[in-house]
Amino acid sequence: xxxxxxxxxxxxxxxxxxxxxxxxxxxxxxxxxxxxxxxxxxxxxxxxxxxxxxxxxxxxxxxxxxxxxxxxxxxxxxxxxxxxxxxxxxxxxxxxxxxxxxxxxxxxxxxxxxxxxxxxxxxxxxxxxxxxxxxxxxxxxxxxxxxxxxxxxxxxxxxxxxxxxxxxxxxxxxxxxxxxxxxxxxxxxxxxxxxxxxxxxxx
Length: 203
What we know:
Blueprint: E1 3-7, H1 12-15, E2 23-32, H2 35-42, E3 56-58, E4 63-68, E5 71-76, H3 86-96, E6 100-103, H4 109-118, E7 121-124, H5 130-134, E8 137-144, E9 154-169, H6 176-198
Parallel strand pairs: 1-2, 2-3, 3-6, 6-7
Antiparallel strand pairs: 2-9, 4-5, 7-9, 8-9
Helix pairs in contact: 2-3, 3-4
């Protein structure tokens, strides 16, 4: 396991040697982007109003304080479940050129294909740290699609050492969650057999 520091814009070369299980800290541009924004782009064919090419998105519904005069403060920004975006993510990556997809939990084969074909990473932010995560948001630089409400608005942020981010899918399409499932299931079967022997006297 290695630790990497990435600064946007991110190139293919910047992430080609990063593997599943590695840790990343992000500096630069990160935009919150959830279900409805994905749907608008993929299903409604509405161009994303914020340029995320070679940058990062975060599957999150943050809590924002409106300071007035189009100024905002990030209060909490915990990740939401990435798998909800799975059906959109491959096309989303293709159209936007985003390089880093941040969220909670694993993603599936569509995202694996996108990461491999378009050279991107999916990374997991540890759950339960929304307030801590907000401390690494220097400022909110733009807010688009505010008609969607606070959780679904595209909040474009300038971040510093945002992390730790655990690499879930790398540019080879390797998937940490899927590989761990195999390992855990093998361990589970061995434990079940052990338990069965111990309780075999029960009729």
